[in-house]
Write a structure and sequence with these properties.
The chain is mainly α. It has 24 helices and five strands. The longest helix is centred in the N-terminal third of the chain and has 31 residues, at 43-73. It binds zinc ion (ZN). Residues 366, 370, 394, 397 line the site of zinc ion.
């Protein structure tokens, strides 16, 4: 854990620069490491080689993060794009070197001693990594990265004509979630017309990706991309059958509850039938919005973290001091929010697209959770432990969204209670959507020969199962089964989605505990972040005193308690007009 006082060693984000590594030079270093590892007489000597290798991996990982961050900040900049292309070409070549060394470590006669020193989790992750790669797929990985970048650039370049202005996707989203129904409808019409206009490209990119990913899994001797996808996600302590059982529980226990929440929402909005353009809005006054601009938000956030915990306070002042936040929407910037990190400096970076809506606060607290965990894990003995696997990472982010609840007055004033109710409602409503996205991807990769039209049918099956209230009416693109094409993960992070649902089941447990004892919940949260990725998902969750989402009855219990609390909040809000 780097001391905040040491942050002077960390360059300001604007000055961060890492030269692209020369492949031959890196290959020679790997060759030397392999030779030393083979010749090492004892576990100590082998450990020294692993530590040096880890330093090299941290450097390459930081270079990759920085190159991709710069591209996302300015997708229309030729230099950034060229650097990203070079990075995407080199990454699979470095992966080949890395996998070769991982194989050597896994086969080492000193494996037991090494696992005792480094922890068993690294070995489980490396087992997963070596099964997900062969040199035969190297060129396929380069092509895959190119297709993913094409999708990101296409969406980042969207200009949508709306009421005399040209808007990008985050900007139009604000109108699509505003208080006036007619405006929301008009904004959705404009947004989805852009998708109709680009359907050929969106279909082609995804079709190419599905075929490419399927062909890679065949080359690795796997039945379908589902197997490869799970290995690339490094799911080492649960499998596709566990996920399928979890999805069934969402379908049976959460969907009916979500349907009643949608009915209540329609009643509150005073509409006979909820349409797609109503779904994001929870009452006729519109959603609460943060009451200041970007600079004001950052100042409020600092005060909030100062009041919460000394570790959060020093973390956030370091982030501001070092310029590790890029939160405002700009043309050419890619859509969405994410957190990345630079292991060589031990600091994270938060990327967002603020548009003045409540989502700014949600994205900000979410990404701050990721960033805080990364910062607290800076001193882990292996790069593999700096982040845990994705579903664990999402516990850090989604839990912080709830643990910051008592401070929402700082952003929303008198509307904080309304924000909390919306947030909790959305947390339940998210589970069916997230599950639909996951189930869809399983179906897509189980039938890789399906046509784009057949994939639209598959998505519509998912909507009927998990989102039966959904009505697109005259929005032609989603009405024909194309909604999923705006879900970035489906294109660029396959199978990264159920992670949010698993994590939500854990984050809600943090929320339940925080209502009983806020300080204890926050201390447990900080301790979980300090543990980094040394354990697999279910062990990490249990280490924080939570139940695994795969435990019998836990989803029903968590969702039931959340629903009860929503009933109480709804009663309070109607009395107090909050
Ligand atoms: Zn996240």
């Amino acid at each position: 854990m780097p001391d905040p006082a040491d942050s002077l060693r960390v360059p300001h984000a604007n000055d961060m620069k890492i030269d692209a590594p020369a492949f031959e030079e890196i290959a020679a270093r790997y060759q030397a490491l392999e030779a030393r590892f083979t010749a090492a007489p004892d576990p100590e000597a082998r450990l020294a080689v692993i530590q040096e290798w880890d330093g090299l991996r941290c450097h390459l990982d930081s270079w990759r993060s920085l190159t991709h961050l710069r591209f996302n900040q300015k997708t229309d900049d030729r230099e950034h794009r060229a650097a990203r292309e070079r990075c995407d070409e080199l990454t699979p070549r470095f992966q080949r070197l890395d996998v070769s060394l991982k194989r050597m470590v896994l086969a080492s006669p000193h494996r037991k001693d090494l696992a005792r020193r480094l922890g068993a989790q690294a070995f489980a992750l490396w087992e997963s990594d070596v099964m997900a790669f062969e040199p035969a797929i190297e060129e396929d990985l380069v092509r895959e990265a190119r297709l993913e970048a094409e999708y990101v650039e296409l969406l980042a370049g969207a200009r949508i004509r709306f009421r005399g202005e040209d808007l990008n996707l985050p900007e139009i989203r604000r109108f699509a979630t505003g208080p006036e129904r007619a405006t929301r409808h008009e904004a959705e019409q404009a947004r989805w017309t852009w998708f109709t206009d680009h359907q050929t490209d969106l279909d082609r990119i995804f079709d190419d990706l599905v075929h490419l990913r399927t062909s890679m899994s065949k080359k690795l001797g796997l039945a379908s991309y589902v197997d490869l996808g799970y290995r690339r996600m490094q799911r080492v302590d649960y499998d596709a059958a566990d996920v399928a059982r979890f999805r069934d529980q969402v379908r049976d226990q959460v969907v009916p509850l979500a349907a009643t929440l949608r009915q209540r929402q329609a009643a509150r909005l005073g509409v006979e039938r909820l349409c797609f353009w109503d779904e994001a809005v929870h009452d006729p006054r519109g959603n609460p919005e943060p009451q200041g601009d970007h600079a004001w938000m950052l100042a409020q956030a600092q005060e909030m973290f100062d009041a919460m915990h000394p570790d959060l306070a020093s973390f956030f002042s370091m982030m501001r001091d070092r310029g590790l936040l890029d939160l405002q929407a700009r043309d050419g910037k890619s859509d969405g929010g994410f957190c990345t990190g630079f292991p060589i400096w031990g600091v994270p970076f938060i990327f967002g697209n603020f548009n003045g809506s409540k989502a700014d606060v949600e994205v900000f607290t979410h990404e701050s959770g990721h960033a805080f965990q990364f910062y607290r894990s800076g001193d882990m003995e292996l790069l593999d432990y700096v982040w845990p696997t994705a579903e664990s990472c999402e516990v850090h982010s989604m839990a912080l969204e709830f643990l910051t609840w008592p401070h929402m007055e700082r952003f929303f004033g008198d509307h904080a209670e309304r924000f909390r109710r919306n947030h909790l409602t959305d947390s339940l409503l998210f589970l069916p959507y997230g599950t639909a996205v996951d189930h869809f991807q399983h179906l897509v990769y189980e039938s890789p020969g399906a046509s784009p039209d057949e994939r639209r049918d598959l998505w519509q099956q998912m909507e009927r199962t998990y989102l039966p209230w959904r009505r697109y009416r005259d929005l032609a693109h989603p009405a024909a089964g194309g909604f999923w094409q705006l879900q970035r993960h489906i294109y660029i992070n396959p199978f990264y989605y159920i992670d949010y649902c698993l994590a939500q089941t854990c984050a809600l447990q943090f929320w339940i505990r925080s209502r009983q004892d806020a300080d204890a919940a926050l201390n447990d949260y900080v301790a979980l972040c300090n543990r980094g990725g040394r354990l697999p998902f279910q062990s990490l969750v249990r280490s924080a005193g939570l139940a695994s989402p795969f435990d019998e009855g836990i989803l029903a219990s968590v969702v039931g308690q959340t629903h009860d609390a929503l009933e109480t909040l709804a009663a309070t809000c109607s009395r107090e007009r909050c």
